[in-house]
Amino acid sequence: MENCIEVKNLTKYYGNRVAVNNLNLTVKKGEVFGLLDPNGAGKSTTIDCILGLKSFENGSVRVLGVDPTNDRKRLFEQVGVQLQASSYQGNIRVGEICTEISALYRSPADYHDLLAQFKLNQYLKHPVAKLSGGEKQKLSVLLALIPQPEVLFLDELTTGLDTEARREVWQVLTNLKKQGLTLFLTSHYMDEVEVLCDRVCIINQGHELITDTVPELIRTSPYQRLEEAYLWVMKEEITL
Prior knowledge:
Layout: E1 3-14, E2 17-28, E3 32-36, H1 43-50, E4 58-63, H2 72-76, E5 79-82, H3 94-102, H4 111-117, H5 133-145, E6 151-155, H6 163-178, E7 182-186, H7 190-196, E8 199-204, E9 207-213, H8 214-219, H9 226-239
Parallel strand pairs: 3-7, 3-8, 5-6, 6-7
Antiparallel strand pairs: 1-2, 1-4, 8-9
Helix pairs in contact: 5-6
């Protein structure tokens, strides 16, 4: 299966602190890949480096065969991105932000179709600020899909949402997965990762601890659920 993302020996420093430490990973076309770590241990920085949003000291990155640092404009026609914090202009309406984002791309999707798909079409003239948490997160995924991307990056998409809103977003992502879209996501919710991801990479202090399928990662641990298996991997790392 063709690789969509290839990261080799990626190393990123903040001053004297190593944020990403000689990281290697690949993501295959049509795969849902999860990058997991404790808070502040490198995953958001890794995404920023993969997208060319931050420079790095060593290594190489290719996304859809493109170098994100040297050819960012071409890359951003092919990927969708939902970063950890999204903010919008004051009082902007749903239809207005969709129109603004569409204007950035040569061949944008019809956002009216996306609004219907995400069950947000009734909010076309609604201020974004007055949407619920789940509706805002669905809108952030919708906006990331406007360029008709081949790869979708989602950084802690459901953090802060209640259970019902998280389930709504899960359903959206499950449908995208069925359509064959490649998803690269981070999350602190292991139940979410277990439902959505094909493979995961667990990192700590920016270096890889293990990369495997979710069932195999659970099988090689003494536990039956991903959450306990994840904690077991982290504890084994601390013991070493």
